[in-house]
């Protein structure tokens, strides 16, 4: 019956070839189209990185202006989509709302469900990148019971998102440029990460010819899990539960205990075995932003730093090569910006949308692409005869 490789968790299987993102897990290297993440995070900005991921090269000034204006033109949602939000329970997790609303986009934008037309594929990409902040912000506003705030096209991408999250009609809201810059950096640090679980989900969904909105909804659903994007929420909740640095040893002992399912959230990575370059930028960013916002002696940041130090000094974590990942410090920054923990993973999802859609596009442009169809190692019963119910 043929010879298959057995590789649960795909620890040694390459599912595709790609020219988008390169990771060297031993050296802590992350490159998008060849450019190091640290340079993109400090010198570029999110929409420029979006262009780079989608089209393969950094844009010229004219190309960037054109791209930014296209994305800005697509930020509104069809007015009728508000009914989708309103159909959810008031306390719905915004990730649940996002899975539903993004999936529902295929019912509103029939034209860009035509995946065989490159122009429609491009419009679908633009629509998703443009509308995701509106969708995430509205999921949040719905939780709060506040009116949906429409996008403002005079603002940059990050500022517009902050505006839709925090403005209310009753008073004027000014986006703090320090917060907007930090927000943009968080988007950039999450933009793509090659064949992680949610991206692989998007590619597998797309391999059947499913429409782009359905594929991205599948990616959002996968990202939600605490072993993946849900770790940023879980990590901040853990840091709050720890509360003060004196309780850290107790949690480290629990993480090491094989009979306790508890893991240090924001720690460990399938690919990075020395450090996660995104976590390095995030840690520095946490210091900077809290400083700039005048937040001194933040107890959560202090607990995070102490936890990192104690874990790294512990032979268990050293032997297993467990280091802080991108989710370890992001929550500290997001909380300082005023986001509740339930919004952390939606922010990851909106940032990763460009990565998902770039990989989706790359897959469809590959003339050799075929449906993803893993095999299995069957361990069930051998063939046997059906038994009538009265004889069982
Ligand atoms: N705390 C304690 N022990 C851990 C941890 C942790 N956070 N992570 C891994 N281990 C141990 C694990 O118990 C196992 O031990 P043993 O070999 O004795 O059975 C060993 O390290 C290897 O772990 P694994 O689960 O086989 O490794 P994996 O590559 O399958 O999983 C991971 C990677 C990220 C899912 C895992 O490290 C984890 O659960 N971390 C916590 C959740 C987290 O922070 N996720 C975010 C990942 S980065 C951003 C993203 O992908 O969204």
Quick structural summary:
This protein is mainly α and 392 residues long. It is built from 17 helices and 3 strands.
Overview of this protein structure:
This is Citrate synthase. Keywords: Acyltransferase, Transferase, Tricarboxylic acid cycle. It holds the Pfam family Citrate_synt. This protein has about 400 residues and is mainly alpha-helical. The chain has two domains: about 45-225 and about 350-365, Citrate Synthase, domain 1 (Orthogonal Bundle); about 230-335, Cytochrome p450-Terp, domain 2 (Orthogonal Bundle), CATH 1.10.230. Helix content is about 55%, strand content about 5%. The protein has 17 helices and three strands. It has helices spanning about 35-45, 45-55, 60-75, 80-85, 95-110, 120-145, 155-165, 175-190, 195-205, 210-225, 230-240, 250-255, 275-290, 300-310, 315-320, 325-335, 345-365; strands at about 20-25, 30, 35. It has a three-stranded antiparallel β-sheet. Helix 9 (about 195-205) runs antiparallel to helix 10 (about 210-225) and helix 10 (about 210-225) packs across helix 17 (about 345-365). The chain is globular and about 75 Å long. It starts with 20 loop residues before the first strand and ends in a 27-residue tail after the last helix. The relative contact order is 0.14. Bound molecules: carboxymethyl coenzyme *A. Carboxymethyl coenzyme *A binds near residues 196, 227, 265 and 266.
């Amino acid at each position: 019956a043929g010879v298959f490789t057995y590789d649960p968790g795909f620890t040694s299987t390459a599912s595709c070839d790609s020219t988008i993102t390169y990771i060297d897990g031993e050296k802590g290297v992350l490159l998008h189209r060849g450019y190091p993440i640290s340079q993109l995070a400090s010198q570029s900005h999110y929409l420029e990185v979006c262009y780079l991921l989608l089209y393969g090269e950094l844009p010229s000034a004219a190309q960037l202006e054109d791209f930014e204006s296209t994305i800005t033109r697509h930020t509104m949602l069809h007015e009728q989509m508000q009914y989708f939000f309103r159909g959810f329970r008031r306390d719905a997790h915004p990730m649940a709302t996002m899975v539903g609303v993004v999936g529902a986009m295929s019912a509103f934008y029939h034209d860009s469900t035509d995946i065989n037309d490159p122009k429609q594929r491009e419009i679908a990409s633009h629509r998703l990148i443009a509308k995701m902040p509106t969708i995430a912000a509205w999921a949040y506003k719905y939780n709060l019971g506040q009116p949906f705030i429409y996008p403002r096209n005079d603002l940059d991408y990050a500022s517009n998102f902050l505006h839709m999250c925090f403005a209310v009609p009753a008073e004027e809201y000014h986006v703090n440029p320090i917060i907007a810059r930090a927000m943009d950096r968080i988007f950039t640090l999450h933009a793509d990460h090659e064949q992680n679980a949610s991206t692989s989900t998007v590619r597998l969904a797309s391999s059947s010819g499913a429409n782009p909105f359905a594929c991205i909804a599948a990616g959002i659903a996968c990202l939600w899990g605490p072993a993946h994007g849900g770790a940023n929420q879980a990590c901040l909740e853990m840091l709050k539960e720890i509360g003060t640095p004196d309780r850290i040893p107790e949690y480290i002992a629990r993480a090491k205990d094989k009979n306790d399912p508890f893991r240090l959230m924001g720690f460990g990575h399938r690919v990075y075995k020395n450090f996660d370059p995104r976590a390095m930028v995030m840690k520095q960013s946490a210091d900077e932003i809290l400083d700039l916002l005048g937040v001194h002696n933040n107890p959560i940041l202090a607990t995070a730093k102490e936890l990192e130090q104690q874990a790294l000094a512990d032979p268990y974590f050293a032997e297993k090569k467990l280091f802080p990942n991108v989710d370890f410090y992001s929550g500290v920054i997001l909380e300082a910006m005023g986001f509740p923990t339930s919004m952390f993973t939606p922010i990851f999802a909106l940032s990763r949308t460009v990565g998902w859609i770039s990989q989706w596009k790359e897959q469809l442009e590959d003339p050799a692409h075929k449906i993803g169809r893993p095999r299995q190692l069957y361990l069930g019963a051998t063939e046997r005869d059906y038994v009538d119910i009265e004889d069982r």
